[in-house]
Structures are given as structure tokens and as C-alpha cells.
């Protein structure tokens, strides 16, 4: 088969998670387009607004040389990003809710300033804006995703993957997120991956290291799910497992039914709504 990235099925940790929660939610988030504008749709919430703003700060740091990363207070970078999610644009119901989330974000970037750890050391930056590789040329499937941080480890000439968490709960240990990132890093840059970690910015002063995944088993799971997604797209078959919809698809159905408020368009060109 001739490789054609425009006809390929692109999968990511986010889209795989959507499909595992509910095929209908996957469809509405990743396939459906507003027939009036031909744009995809997305929902905004206070938690997403917080995560987006903190990750904007980290993305800014990743583009700077080590000596320049903390020349400017990170609170200034955060406040600039927060302007994009103020009020209804961030899904906030009132000023108090917005204030509480904004303060949590300021506390997180203050933690990074006080305990920069790996962010004060060399990092590897993948050249692609959206890192991707062919998961299967035969099945025409591409795996893609953005890794928060690749810390360079000079002693072993390798990298450690760091994913930043802004929520209050630990990631499921069975999550495919880090295995997917290990596969992406292994196929889009030259350094071997020798460490993986989550950094829970709401509470921890440093990343929490995790054991390296069984990549053979993870790759099989990722490929099997990706094939199911590709087949569902081919057959246009995306049904919720519940008759009246589930927690994953019902909010998106409300957008399609016109029961949500449009608050803007995001950097991916998707129409952003709040309930």
C-alpha cells in the first residue's frame, strides 16, 4: 500500500480514550462536523481551562534554552494564557469558580518556579509540530500525539518522558498514555527512552517515576484498538452501549442538538462549546 497520510486513520491517546469510553463519543469528538460550518466540535469545562493554561506555560518553557526558561515569572505567562479562558469561554459558572481554578493554576506554576527540577535541565524537543509515525502501513493507521516533556539524561544519553497532570486524581495505572508516548518518542527522535513519569502539579514537588511498560503487550493493545477504530470509521458504525446515551456522549449530543453555547474556536479550528 502506498503511504498516504491524508487518507490514513490517525489515532492518539485522546482519541483512543474517547473510543474506549464510548464509540459515539469518539464519533462526535473526532469525526462529526457541524454541517453549517464544516468544523469539528469540542466542549470546554473549568478543569480543561485550567489544564490548558498550565500546559501553555510548560509548552512555552519547552521552546526556550535552559538559561532563559525562568527569566520571566511563570505567573505572567499563565495570566496571559488565562485571558483565553476567562468567564464563559472557560465554562465557569461564576466569578468564584473561575477564581478558584485560576488560583490553583497560579499555585501550580509557583510550584514549578520553586521546584523546577528537570525543567531546569536539558530537554529534547521533537522537531515535528505533531509527532507521528505509521503504526501500520498495511492497515493505513498513524499514531500521533504531543509529549509534554522529554528530559535529557546525559549519563545514559537517553530521555525520560514527563507528563504533567493538573487534575486532583492519579492516572489509572492501566492507562495507555505513557506506553503510547514511549512508542512515539522511540519513533520520532533518536534517543532511547529509559524513564517515564507523571508530575502531579497540584501536590508534588517533583515527578513520580513509574516502571517502564511492557511495550510488546502495549503495542498489541494499541494496535488492536486502532484497528477497531479504523473498522468503525469504514463502516460508519459508532453506537453508544446505553440506549439513552452515557456520560461520555450525552454532553456532546447536547451540542449537536443545539442545547449548548458556542464560545469560540480553538487552535485546532474546532468550535468550542459550553453547556
From TrEMBL:
Record InterPro entries: PDDEXK-like_dom_sf, PDDEXK_AddAB-type
Organism listed in the record: Candidatus Gottesmanbacteria bacterium RBG_16_52_11
Entry superkingdom: Bacteria
Xref: Gene3D superfamilies: 3.90.320.10
PD-(D/E)XK endonuclease-like domain ranges (all copies): 11-249
Protein name in the entry: PD-(D/E)XK endonuclease-like domain-containing protein
